Amino acid sequence: MPKGRQKVPHLDAPLGLPTCLWLELAGLFLLVPFVMGLAETSGPDAQAPGGLSWAVHLDSLEGDREEEHLEQQADAVAQEAGLVNAGRIGELRGHYLFVQPAGPSQAMEVQSVRQQAEAVLAGHEAVRWHSEQRLLKRTKRTVHFNDPKYPQQWHLCVIGFPPHLLQNNQRSPGRDINVTGVWERNVTGRGVTVVVVDDGVEHTVQDIAPNYVSGPEPHARPMSELLPHYASALFPSLAGTEPNQIASEVGWGAFSSPVPASFAAWQLGCSRCSSPKGEDLSRTSCFLLLLPLCRSPEGSYDLNSNDPDPMPHPDLENGNHHGTRCAGEIAAVPNNSFCAVGVAYGSRIAGIRVLDGPLTDSMEAVAFNKHYQINDIYSCSWGPDDDGKTVDGPHQLGKAALQHGVMAGRQGFGSIFVVASGNGGQHNDNCNYDGYANSIYTVTIGAVDEEGRMPFYAEECASMLAVTFSGGDKMLRSIVTTDWDLQKGTGCTEGHTGTSAAAPLAAGMIALMLQVRPCLTWRDVQHIIVFTATQYEDHHADWLTNEAGFSHSHQHGFGLLNAWRLVNAAKIWTSVPYLASYVSPVLKENKAILRSPHLLEVLWNVSRMDLEMSGLKTLEHVAVTVSIAHPRRGSLELKLFCPSGMVSLIGTPRSMDSDPSGFDDWTFSTVRCWGERAKGTYRLVIRDVGDEPPQLGILQQWQLTLYGSMWSPVDIRERQRLLESAMSGKYLHDGFSLPCPPGLEIPEEDGYTITPNTLKTLVLVGCFTIFWTIYYMLEIYLSHKNVASTQGCRNGPCHWPQRSRKSREEGTELESVPLCNSKDLNGAETENRSPPTTADLLAPDLLHEGDWTLSQNSQSALDCPYQHQQPDLLQGKEEQIC
Ligand SMILES: *[C@@H]1O[C@H](CO)[C@@H](O)[C@H](O)[C@H]1NC(C)=O
Ligand SMILES: *[C@@H]1O[C@H](CO)[C@@H](O)[C@H](O)[C@H]1NC(C)=O
Ligand SMILES: *[C@@H]1O[C@H](CO)[C@@H](O)[C@H](O)[C@H]1NC(C)=O
Ligand SMILES: *[C@@H]1O[C@H](CO)[C@@H](O)[C@H](O)[C@H]1NC(C)=O
Ligand SMILES: [Ca+2]
Ligand SMILES: [Ca+2]
After folding, report:
1. Fewest CB atoms less than 10 Å from the CB: which of 21, 303, 374, 794?
2. Distance from the CA of 186 to the center of ligand 3, in angstroms?
3. Gap between the Cα atoms of 245 and 470, Å rounded
4. Residues tagged active-site
5. pLDDT tens figures, 539-584
6. Can you list the domains of the chain with their CATH numbers?
7. How do residues 197-217 score in pLDDT, each as one tens digit?
8. 181 CB less than 6 Å from ligand 2?
9. pTM higher than 0.85 for the full model?
């Protein structure tokens, strides 16, 4: 085969590519979409696979002849030969691909086209070399779906079009989430559950029903009922066997008390898969098989009517279709000849109906933790009013629930909360005035339109992590997705828009990440987004590159989410070290805020000593809590400078906001200093840009909170390099996987109260997190370094920063609490005593439903295949953790 073959895009690219290519052309010519045989369609530049094509090397004797000139010559030669120049082959200078022109071609014509082309190319003086390209037989997994609206889902399309094709229809590369390559590698969100917290999900529509999580509540059911169910699902030969017989075959003895289903399934999987009898499965495939079972069956709830069914209710405004539309973006079923395809179409979808009626703090709190061992990702396309004058966010319980979710949800890896940045753009609203967007526990997602620009409705802020696609103004396309079929709905819409449409796409991409690496923590997910989002040109964006090399813009966060990059990074991601934080004292200032051009500047120095206790070296989120009295809140502008000089506009002036009460302990946050050194001077600069002067504002007090980890700048650069090396996709196959510890079995609670049991759970979760963080760090650094990382806990009890009284009372800053020391959580002093071992901590409380786990198995709740493989390492570290 000729050398140029590898680079011929038409021939070697995945089939998804011609499909998308076709979509582009369809858009151009306003063709009515039809579905099958997409690839057979041709446009002027599209070559039908099966049509003829030649690789041609043109003479470029003059050496530095310009590319443009060569291109023109190629066009001319192609025309002479009766072919069309499809552009340069990859990066090979002087090499072009000529294809048979479009149009129906008979077999007879093919022969004459070939003869003519061969004759011309062979005789042409400018042609140094030519070779007809023959199609390779592909056995690659492909994704071309028969869903009628799939071709209109422009946001899913592939990056990597041959540039010449993009020029032809005025489109630039990179205006999509690049997901098809991920699907081709069989990554579709399998085993991951996404819950849409909204106005309901119509789970009976065709594109949702098969992926909807439904079934009986697992925890209430006795083991004797569950076991046959799981056993027969996994091993058909065991169907109908007596529960106790299965149990004894698996080596457990009999069951009397009910145990959590997922734990039982996990146990069953581990033991059963290693059993010599019956169907032989590797542990990995067993785990994969079990994962959906473990997390099934029910993730949904209706908090508006207080029942388990989140079915939306028809309303006067025909408006309760929102949740269903979001659900479709995530998990619409592919290839069912109906409507569209979800980003993570292999994932499972659940719904929590909470927005159709009065919403209270406690309802919000319940929603955020609902079925949090089943639901992995919470997609929340809502927030406080986007009217340009509201300053609001989660209240006491909502905040506590978010925090509880990241600590105890997803078996201790942390629930992923995705929130939309907000739709108040035309009111000058800013998501730093939205407490959900500001929260460190959420992934804040903004929107860009199909041209990559910030739409009129989108809000910007310093805490925005990334953006993805949605609709724009009238001339631009919106998102095609599932719709309800109640009232005027048809089950499918082309008109979903707003940042509401962006957040679910992000949730879907995160589901893809969790499939390839189920043990990513909530912070890992944020890190991966920061590391992989791509900056792109937009005149409105104020890109600034920080000291760690990450570029951020208030409009676009760290850039565009790219499913390919996210999933490849997730695949090789080892967990970031535990969350370290630093809280400054409350800094009482009582200083007047003079009118612009004057400004008020206050600073706070964070020294090496301050950070030594927590081990905080590099930053993640930086938060500032301020109390300001001001007669017109919207006139204030607040900027925060990190030690590097990186500036964040945390408080923007808002013309509509004439609230006279100022800010009362409002927390602004920024992600713009991500990865930078934590040590140094932080400056808060406040200006009053108002002009009508009754009285001046006063900065009463402020407080700085830094979040981050013990990663050094060098660690971060190393990680950046590692991730880039993975972007070729070389690790994205089933044969490669890093060890992933299974999670903790954490019982769910009904209603939201922080009980002593919850606190105990938190202690255990914290211990667990630290435990395997250290486990990873050991794994990573053992070869390079002399495990300095565990130092904090090695020589006696852990030293952690003391919380301020305020945070202690509010229950915030829990993550900086010595979680492995239950005494402190109860308010007692930390003593210099010998640390408890993991075994002590994993008291039977955790597994209170079943006495069989610990006693019969004498293994801890962390029992899993991986531990069996490396008992020494784990045993040895236990003492150091707590
Ligand atoms: C979609 O369904 C068609 C049959 O309707 C089938 O030929 C095709 O392989 C399916 N595609 C995928 C990606 O499963
Ligand atoms: C998009 O995905 C393809 C694989 O399908 C990959 O080769 C390409 O590099 C990706 N492009 C970007 C910009 O990430
Ligand atoms: C994708 O993965 C699933 C589950 O592991 C498996 O059943 C299926 O055969 C895989 N598909 C392909 C095309 O490899
Ligand atoms: C902080 O450090 C800077 C220089 O390092 C110094 O000029 C300043 O006085 C310090 N401020 C406080 C409040 O300690
Ligand atoms: Ca469909
Ligand atoms: Ca807002």
Report:
1. 794
2. 6
3. 55
4. 198, 322, 500
5. 778 899 999 999 999 999 999 999 999 999 999 999 999 999 999 9
6. 38-132 (3.30.70), 217-295 (no CATH), 302-571 (3.40.50.200), 580-710 (2.60.120.260), 798-881 (no CATH)
7. 999 998 888 898 888 876 443
8. yes
9. no
